[in-house]
Automatic annotation (TrEMBL):
Residues covered by region (Disordered): 344-403
Organism: Pseudonocardia lutea
Cross-referenced InterPro entries: CoA-transferase_III_domain (IPR050483), CoA-Trfase_fam_III (IPR003673), CoA-Trfase_III_dom3_sf (IPR044855), CoA-Trfase_III_dom_1_sf (IPR023606)
One Pfam family linked to the record: CoA_transf_3
Name the UniProt record assigns to this protein: CoA transferase
Length: 803
């Protein structure tokens, strides 16, 4: 018998997904869908999926069936090996509910003609295409490359190998950041398409862009430029502080101070030094402006502590701080052991062999998800033997809605970045998201810049406005009984309530899950915490920078053979946010079918382990650390950013095979390099990468980024100019996708902020409007939803219950 939690943990049971691609983006999308219960079939080429040769390999012995990366990304799927034009594969595609297409070289394994043929016979088919730029606004083939997307999407112009040292170089995030965000966007928009399909019985096409996906998550880089005209650059200020790596007697700590009250606690913890009372450090803006001076004082004080002493004090004083974890630290961490966060994955071609891997990044009804099924052996299944039963064609249950989540109401109790980002995705899909704020404690990001036109104000923050688009804003005094009563009333009418407070905070407010269920038996209650609702770290402060440090992201990034790196942006927040949105929509999908509510838990840390698993995979497979490669890559060479003519001008180049390298050699004016034993194969090029990069730099340094990129693209070599944020705003491809829509804010007027990474052929799934001003919709929402009269609303304002 299937338990209630098991049914909710597999909301996509029976959904047939054909993964036709060889990219990380396709693999991670399939990984998430399999974790939601879908039946995912991987179509592999005859030579096998690239991850079979990528490693790391169990006990460091190269073997296609012992690759940790393949095992993790494809555990629980089935493997079919056949040419795309094989009749059995064509028939398999015709039986699928969902087709995912994403290839490194841009050649579709399941072509448009066959897709059109299947759509004519089965209008319920949903096709998900993932590529560097998407299929809208870009002609020709549609390859998928993470480095080029990071260049075109703006990240490489901001992220740096060093925040303080000389010669900062553009740095990608190891772990293919744009690919995993695009994969998450693909799954989230697919869930929206499945909601719509329940109404109309019709599928649609989803076009996902890696460039757009990464441009949508660059902290405040986009809003800073658009709101103030300032161009974000590498080694720029972080807006809050002190924030960074600080040496202690026996190790390094990562600390981030965001609010004034946290800074005051830090000063008290350090014994009230004289500098702590200086006027220039009294405000967030002052600490930002004088960050270099403050940093010197903080460093001098922390050098007197051991790492353990400082971390213990920081926890006592509620200061956000963490050690810098490597792979072995993660595997040995008692917190993960207590939560069962690293279940084993069995290798498909090696009976009895397994390795630890990140588990599903969500939990239902508080239960630990079971281990995944084993990874498939290469081509173990015959295409004609799969999905042999009848396919259910959704008949549709009503008139199609313009937006998939139309009619769904969400009570949003989130704050800062990760939580608001999650709830904003629900608004993008059409839900009525009611953002509940309290007038007694201002939302943190309303007090952080960039501010529109440089004017400070609670409604002028680009940080808040970027990540709360399309919501309605209600301001209640939740310290009053009447304020809590109004919140309970909103929850009683909602489909979803979502928060990202500390573990147990909602219960301490008088709203544990049992009470939420009493208020509304059909509620989907979603809680995102930093480290989960159990385990020794459950009550620790969690900012994205701390997740970088603890999850191994910081230690696996940096100059070649360098690291760890103090990353300029805390990008665990949007990853945790979009992962939580996926879990929420999936739970809602099942709850709508069953009529029952459910409790969903996500942890920022586990969401990032799932998306960026390399430290766990290397530690588990080899016992060692992740090799720090800079911008290099195991599957391509040369692969990196190269200096061009001018100041801080760069071009990204990703040469993926021998044919591309031969073409590169011709462009360099040295075709003989293709026959040079140092460069004749990928393995040889990687051994001699220093020499190879010097040759490429000698050529690129005489050209502008645009000239270099055009010359290489003309010969079929992957290349993109490293775009600054202003250039991203002017991207013709993003313009064609409508990526910067105009929305009208109640206080600051018309603005253009980033949209989403996907386009849908049938449903509107993007920003519905601007972020709300503080309390902008309080009267509207309480009157419309709770039926309060104008006189009652006036009284609430007089009594200080509402704003």
């Amino acid at each position: 018998m299937t338990s209630r939690s098991q049914s909710f943990d597999h909301p996509l049971a029976g959904l047939r997904v054909l993964e036709a691609g060889d990219t990380l983006a396709a693999a991670y999308a399939g990984r998430l869908l399999a974790d939601l219960g879908a039946e995912v079939v991987l179509l592999e080429p005859s030579q096998g999926h690239p991850f079979r040769t990528l490693g790391p390999f169990l006990q460091s012995v190269p073997d296609a069936e012992r690759s940790a990366s393949f095992a993790y990304f494809h555990a629980g799927k089935r493997s079919v090996t056949a040419a795309a034009d094989d009749p059995a594969v064509r028939a398999l595609a015709a039986r699928a509910d969902v087709l995912i297409r994403s290839t490194r070289d841009g050649a579709d394994w399941i072509g448009d003609d066959l897709v059109a043929e299947i759509e004519a016979a089965r209008p319920a088919l949903v096709v998900v295409d993932v590529s560097t730029f998407g299929r809208t606004g870009r002609d020709g083939p549609h390859p998928t490359n993470d480095l080029l997307a990071l260049a075109a999407g703006g990240l490489l112009s901001i992220n740096s190998t060093t925040l303080r040292g000389p010669d900062p170089l553009p740095l990608r995030y190891r772990g293919e950041l744009s690919s995993v965000h695009a994969a998450c966007g693909a799954v989230l928009s697919l869930l929206g398409a499945l909601f719509e399909r329940r109404r109309s019985g019709l599928g649609q096409r989803l076009d996902v862009s890696l460039q757009a996906s990464v441009a949508s998550v660059l902290a405040t880089a986009m809003s800073r430029y658009h709101y103030t005209g300032e161009l974000p650059v590498r080694q720029g200020n972080r807006s809050v502080g002190p924030w960074g790596f600080y040496p202690c007697k026996d190790g390094t700590v990562l600390m981030q101070i965001t609010r004034d009250e946290e800074f005051r606690r830090l000063v008290t913890m350090l014994g009230d030094p004289d500098w702590g009372s200086l006027e220039i450090f009294g405000t967030t803006a002052g600490r930002d402006e004088n960050a270099d001076v403050l940093d010197v004082f903080v460093r001098e004080h922390l050098e007197g502590f051991t790492l353990g002493e400082f971390l213990d004090l920081a926890h006592t004083h509620r200061i956000a701080a963490a050690p810098i974890h490597g792979a072995r630290d993660i595997l040995e961490w008692d917190h993960l052991a207590a939560r069962g966060s690293l279940p084993p994955v069995a290798l498909g071609g090696a009976p009895g062999e397994s390795l630890p891997a990140p588990g599903r990044p969500w939990r239902v009804d508080g239960t630990v998800p079971p281990p995944r099924d084993r990874a498939p052996a290469h081509g173990e299944a015959a295409a004609e033997s799969l999905w042999s039963g009848p396919t259910e064609h959704p008949a549709g249950s009503g008139t199609p809605a313009e937006r998939p989540l139309e009619g769904v109401r969400v009570v949003d109790l989130t704050w800062v970045w990760a939580g608001p980002f999650a709830a904003m995705q629900l608004a993008h899909l059409g839900a009525d998201v009611v953002r509940v704020e309290t007038g007694t404690r201002l939302e943190t990001t309303r007090g952080l810049g960039p501010y529109a036109d440089g004017i400070v104000g609670v409604d002028r923050s680009g940080y808040f406005n970027q990540y709360n688009q399309g919501k309605r804003g209600v301001a209640l005094n939740l310290k009053t009984a009447r304020g809590m009563e109004l919140l309970r009333g909103l929850i009683a009418t909602a489909d979803v309530v979502i928060d990202n407070m500390s573990a147990g905070a909602l219960a301490r407010m008088g709203l544990p899950y049992e009470t939420l269920k009493e208020i509304n038996p059909r509620i989907v209650a979603v809680s995102m915490t930093g480290f989960g609702e159990s385990g020794p770290y459950r009550d620790r402060t969690a900012y994205g920078s701390l997740i970088d440090a603890l999850s191994g992201i910081a230690s696996s990034n940096g100059d070649v053979r360098g690291g760890p790196t103090d990353l300029v942006m805390s990008l665990p927040d949007p990853m945790a946010g979009i992962t939580t949105a996926i879990a929420t929509v999936a739970a809602l999908y099942q709850a709508r079918a069953s009529g029952e509510g459910v409790r969903v838990e996500t942890a920022m840390f586990e969401a990032c382990l799932a998306a960026f698993p390399w430290p766990v995979l290397f530690g588990g497979a080899t016992g060692g650390e992740v090799p720090v490669l800079g911008n290099r890559d195991e599957l391509a060479a040369p692969h990196g950013t190269f200096r061009c003519a001018g100041e801080d001008e760069w071009v990204a180049i990703a040469c993926e095979d021998d044919a591309q390298f031969a073409a590169l050699a011709v462009v360099l004016g040295a075709p003989e390099l293709a026959d040079d034993p140092r460069f004749a194969s990928l393995a040889a090029r990687r051994v001699h990468e220093d020499a190879l990069e010097a040759l490429v730099t000698a050529w690129t340094s005489q050209r502008t980024p645009a000239e270099a990129a055009r010359a290489l693209q003309a010969k079929g070599v992957g290349a993109e100019a490293v775009a600054r944020v202003d250039e991203v705003y002017r991207s013709p491809v993003l313009e064609a996708r409508g990526f910067f829509p105009e929305t009208v804010h109640a206080v600051i007027g018309t603005r253009r902020l980033p949209s989403v990474g996907w386009l849908a052929s049938r449903s509107a799934m993007g920003p519905q409007g601007a972020a709300p001003a503080l309390g902008q919709h309080t009267r509207e929402v309480l009157g419309e939803i709770l039926g309060l009269s104008p006189a009652e609303l006036d009284a609430l304002e007089r009594e200080g219950v509402t704003v």
